[in-house]
Amino acid sequence: MKETVSRRKRQDWDNKKKLRRIWLFLFLFTLCLVWGNSLLSREDSGAVSDWVRQLLETIFGNETPAAQFILVKIRKIAHFLEYSVLGIEAVLFTFLARPVSGQGVFNCTALGLMAATIDESIQIFAGRGAMVQDILLDMSGFLLAGGITLGILIIARRIRGKSVKEKNL
């Protein structure tokens, strides 16, 4: 009986390690996309933004105030969403196979801040202006999505823990 339980625990650990590798790969892939966009010149970046703006305008129109806001703030919204995805991936990588700890939360947050700071630094070398405001916007997306993901992960673990205890009764 003990051998079966320890084998199951080892298999669970191996599965979690595989998932962590997947989330690490996705985080690094997303980070490469974000930083790759930052390497674009001002003109190329503007062309990408214009293309997205035209696509959204074709789909949603531009008559409503909400559509106008989105079309004007498309670059800021893109930054927020990019870092939201990074926040989700960072939290899942950090806490999927480990318990939640203050040190883990600090490390995850520092990772997001470092990514955002490097992103803005890359833009300086690409001939675009770096802005502290963008770092704050990036971190807002990272922290909001990462915090929601962490909250869901904690709740899911508590629910799962209760269901396992109920089965053992």
Automatic annotation (TrEMBL):
The chain crosses the membrane at residues 21-40, 135-156. Keywords: Membrane, Transmembrane, Transmembrane helix. The keyword Membrane applies. InterPro entries: VanZ-like. Residues 25-149 form the VanZ-like domain. It comes from the Bacteria. This is VanZ family protein. It comes from Guopingia tenuis.
